[in-house]
Amino acid sequence: MVSDRGGRYGFVYRSRQKVYRALRRKGMSKSRAARISNEGFTRAGRSLMARKAAKTRQMRGRKRH
Q1: How many CB atoms lie within 10 A of CB 9?
Q2: Would 3 disulfide with which of 9, 23, 34, 54, CB 3.0-4.6 Å?
Q3: What is the reported pLDDT for 64?
Q4: How far apart are CA 44 and CA 32, in angstroms?
Q5: Distance CA 56, CA 43 (A)
Q6: DSSP 8-state assignment for residue 62
Q7: C-alpha to C-alpha distances, 44 to 32, 51, 52, nearest whole angstrom
Q8: Each residue of 3-27: pLDDT tens digit?
């Protein structure tokens, strides 16, 4: 179980714990996975991440299908 306790136990919003686990399965560190999953807690945060991802894909030359 991912902690939503805070402090030295770390913190990931309960509604975002599936995202955290998925990132951890991909081999991401605990702190990085927590930072990304917590950023997407609000609609604005998810929108911000989507725009950043789109810009990254564009810079790397990937086409949208």
Answers
A1: 9
A2: 9
A3: 63
A4: 19
A5: 20
A6: P
A7: 19, 11, 12
A8: 777 777 789 999 999 999 999 999 9
- Quick: pLDDT tens for 33-42: 999 999 999 9
Q: What is the pTM of this model?
A: 0.77
Tokens 């179980």 appear where? 1
Q: What number of other Cβ atoms are within 10 A of residue 56's Cβ?
A: 10
Length of the chain: 65
| The pLDDT value given to residue 65 | 59
- Rg (C-alpha) for the chain, rounded Å, is 14
Whether 20 contacts 12, CB under 8 Å: yes
